[in-house]
Amino acid sequence: MQLPVRDLTTVLQPPQAPPRASASDLSFDAALIREQLLLVSALDALPLPILILNHGRQIVFTNAAARELVGADAIGQRPGEALNCLHAHLGRDHCGTGPACVACGAADALTRFERSAEATHGECQIMQADARESLDLRVTVKPLRIESRHFVLMTLTDVSHQNRRLALERIFFHDLLNLAGTVSGYAEILQEMPPTVPARGNAAYAVSPEFEYLRSLRRVAHALSDEIRMHRDLLSAEDKRLTVQHVPITTARLLLDLLEAYRCHPAARERSIRLAAEHDPVDFTSDATLVRRVLGNMIKNALEAAVPRETIDVWATHTSDTISFHVRNAAVIDFVAQPHIFKRSFTTKGPGRGLGTYSIKLFTEKYLGGAAGFVSFAETGTIFTITLPRAPAN
């Protein structure tokens, strides 16, 4: 299926950033700060990464802690460029001017500082281009004057572990309580129903409704256990403790089992799931548990984004070397949100969410050897795709 490609810069109004300083001004500012021996010594002694920026948001000084983070050759770069942000080179003037910078807390803090000349702060997630990981940073911006020159003092506090722990705790208990509530509801219905029902037609007896409720109860209990395992695997994956076990997998059986399981999920209420006509069945070898985990998150996210009476499409395609799984729903993701979809804890669904798409990318790219992506346009709806090797690398 050929999907349309569209440059976000044609849709979003990119943010503005002040012009960069000339090479001579940059050298002058860097030399001026190096001459402030007491200031340099004090900043180097601090454990927090600290950057000093000029009027063009370019780095003219890094303390010792910052050099461990951005390297020794960051002078002249903007913060996102020095931190190897995946989106830093997509704007007209790179960092601070691209579509993704609209939602960047560091760029916003600098913009507010430039307007007010007062201390500001913000939080940002920087997805690094080489590591496929994101840094959660709390950024504080303050004015600094040396002789007659005005600078920006920027401190960077890594809050990745704190944000990850809080997000995991919120989501874990949110999901468990939802599923446990469903189990409790079915149990109450079963308790109140009569044990038998009259026979109908020519049948000698009729199946009691309790049987159907028991089936649903079993499915929800299974989903509850699966949610617990998912969070356990996610914690193991982030700690680099997750092991991969390759087994033969048949796509037709895999997808039919998933569709049957998620038709009973709370998110599927008033929504349906089907195997799309584009489905191209094939066998491949991978970790069945992780593949099911990733596809389950893709299906659940699509169901949650769908409106009542909408149908979610699921299918697979393949080449001689790869297999791709696709999940489609009609909703369109806001263009401002799109660059941040795979970031940890980013969500458009409100507090307590935000690990579904992050786990899709984490499991797929770090443990299954594949790639995760999506397109989201009015013409196609939103299609999430993962592409995996048909056989594990030697």
Question: What's this entry about, in short?
Answer:
The chain is of the alpha+beta class.
Structure description:
The chain is α+β, with helices and mostly antiparallel strands and 394 residues long. It has helices at residues 23-34, 37-45, 64-70, 79-82, 105-116, 160-192, 209-238, 251-262, 288-305, 356-366; strands spanning 50-53, 59-62, 120-127, 134-146, 149-158, 247-250, 272-275, 283-286, 311-318, 322-329, 371-377, 381-389. Strands 2-1-5-4-3 form a 5-stranded antiparallel beta sheet, with helices on both faces. A 5-stranded mixed beta sheet has the order 7-9-10-12-11. Strands 6-8 form a two-stranded antiparallel sheet. The longest helix has 33 residues, at 160-192. It has 2 domains: 8-158, PAS domain (Beta-Lactamase, 2-Layer Sandwich); 163-389, 2-Layer Sandwich (Heat Shock Protein 90), CATH 3.30.565. Helix 8 (251-262) packs across helix 9. Strand 4 and strand 5 form a beta hairpin. It is 38% helix and 21% strand.
Quick one: biggest sheet?
Answer: 5 strands, antiparallel
The CATH superfamily of the largest domain is known as Histidine kinase-like ATPase, C-terminal domain
Distance between the amino and carboxyl termini: 30 Å
Radius of gyration over all CA atoms, rounded: 26 Å
Tell me what portion of residues adopts beta-strand conformation. Answer: 15-25%
CATH topology of the largest domain: Heat Shock Protein 90
